[in-house]
Design goal:
The chain is an alpha+beta fold and 98 residues long. It has a domain of 65 residues. It is built from 2 helices and 3 strands. The protein is globular and about 45 Å long.
Length: 98
């Protein structure tokens, strides 16, 4: 989950959307290196790309209060829920997999 969050934060920063309200501080000079090689946006998930346990479509709409707000769609069950923080997103994903 942490690796996913870091990669998505880098992706959001690269596209500058959704814009972050709080700027990340660092003791290093310069910007962090980006390690995202491929970006796939708004395309249906092909069967061979679906997860073993479940497949989710996460839509982050805002990055406010140092966290994410948006919605998550559980593709296999066609259920959508809103989340107000990254922790709430993690709880939704965990409850879907339980």
């Amino acid at each position: 989950m942490i690796q996913m969050a870091q990669l998505l934060e880098e992706l959001f920063d690269r596209f500058e959307y959704p814009q972050q309200v709080i700027e990340t501080r660092s003791f290093r000079e310069g910007k962090r290196e980006k390690n995202i090689d491929q970006v796939i946006l708004s395309q249906p998930v092909p069967q061979e790309k679906r997860g073993e346990l479940a497949t989710f479509h996460v839509k982050v709409i805002f990055r406010q209060h140092a966290t994410w707000q948006g919605s998550v769609l559980w593709i296999d069950e066609n259920k959508e829920e809103n989340f107000r923080s990254f922790l709430e997103l993690c709880a939704l994903l965990d409850s879907a997999l339980a």
